[in-house]
Specification:
276 residues, alpha/beta, Rossmann fold, seven-stranded parallel sheet, two-stranded antiparallel ribbon, 16% strand, globular, disordered N terminus
Length: 276
C-alpha cells in the first residue's frame, strides 16, 4: 500500500487446466428465450470462479451453456463453482491462470478456450486514491486490466462471432460509471470502467447486423466473499435501510440482458440509484 491509496495487488501465481470436449453451438431461436437460446453455446467467463463472476457462471450453466470458468488464484473457489454448475445438471470446466499483462493474458485465455460464443469479463482489479496521488504505475495497472485486456479479448473474438452470426459479450463497469462524471476517490479505475461503454457501443455498430451484442452492466456496491468488514460497512452506509444488489441478482440481470438480441451497446446501472 502506498500513501493515500488502497491497492488490490495482482493475484499470486497459479496454474492448472482441465480439458473439455468442444460442443457445437445451437442456432439462435429468438430474441428472448431462456435455456433455449444458450443451450449448447460455449461461454468463457473471465474472473468466473467467485463473486459476481461466479454467480454469472452458475446462471449460464442453468441456462444450458457449456461454461469455461477462469479463476485467478484459488483452486478451492474454482472447484466449488464448477461443482455447483455440475450439481444442477450443467456442463462446466475451468482453469487457473494469473493474468500478468493484457497481451499475454488474452492470448493465454483464448489458447485455453478459443472462439467462445459468449464472452463475459467479470475480472478487473480495483485501486482507490485521489487523482493527485495516482502515479504512472497506477494508471498502467488499472487501464491495462480494466480496459485494455477487455479490448484485446473482444477484438480477438469479434470476427469469429460475426462469421457465425451470433455472439454475446457482457462487460462490467464500476459503480456509477454509466455516464461520464467526476470521481474523488476512484478516478483512474472509474475512467477505465467508463471507457467500456465506448467499446460496447462500437461492438454494437460493427456486430449488431450479424447477431452480436455487447453490453455493460454497472453494479452497485455489492457484498461478495471478497468483501472485508470495512468494505461491507461502506456498502451499508450507502444503502441505509435496504440491501444492495446481490451477486445472484446481478447475474440474473446480466444473463437476461444477453438473452435480448435487440439490447445492444447499452450501459445499464443496477445500483438502486446509489450516489458515491
Amino acid at each position: 500500500m502506498k500513501g493515500g491509496k488502497n491497492s488490490a495487488a495482482p493475484d499470486p501465481p497459479a496454474a492448472g487446466i482441465q480439458g473439455a470436449a468442444g460442443i457445437q453451438g445451437a442456432a439462435d431461436i429468438g430474441p428472448v428465450s431462456g435455456a433455449g437460446l444458450f443451450s449448447g453455446k460455449k461461454a468463457l467467463v473471465v474472473g468466473g470462479s467467485g463473486g459476481i463472476g461466479g454467480a454469472i457462471s452458475r446462471e449460464l450453466g442453468r441456462k444450458g451453456a457449456e461454461v469455461w470458468v477462469h479463476g485467478a488464484s484459488s483452486r478451492e473457489r474454482l472447484e466449488r463453482t464448477l461443482e455447483a454448475i455440475r450439481g444442477e445438471g450443467g456442463r462446466a470446466e475451468g482453469f487457473l491462470y494469473t493474468i500478468r499483462d493484457p497481451a499475454s493474458g488474452a492470448r493465454a485465455l483464448l489458447e485455453r478456450f478459443p472462439a467462445p460464443d459468449i464472452l463475459v469479463i467479470a475480472w478487473g482489479p480495483f485501486r482507490q486514491g485521489p487523482l493527485e496521488r495516482m502515479d504512472a504505475e497506477d494508471w498502467i495497472f488499472l487501464t491495462n486490466f480494466n480496459i485494455i485486456l477487455p479490448g484485446i479479448l473482444i477484438s480477438s473474438v469479434l470476427c469469429d462471432m460475426i462469421e457465425k452470426r451470433w455472439g454475446r459479450i457482457l462487460l462490467f463497469g464500476g459503480t456509477d460509471t454509466a455516464a461520464i462524471r467526476g470521481f474523488t476517490t476512484t478516478p483512474v479505475y472509474s475512467a477505465a470502467k467508463t471507457a467500456l461503454g465506448v467499446v460496447a457501443r462500437s461492438v454494437a455498430r460493427r456486430g449488431g447486423p450479424s447477431g452480436v451484442s455487447c453490453n455493460v452492466l454497472c453494479p452497485g456496491l455489492t457484498d461478495t466473499e471478497y468483501s472485508g468488514p470495512e468494505a461491507r460497512a461502506y456498502n451499508r452506509a450507502h444503502y441505509p435501510g435496504v440491501s444492495g444488489p446481490s451477486p445472484e441478482e446481478i447475474a440474473r440481470t446480466g444473463v437476461e440482458i444477453m438473452a435480448h438480441s435487440r439490447l445492444n451497446g447499452a450501459i445499464i446501472p443496477i445500483d438502486g440509484g446509489v450516489i458515491l
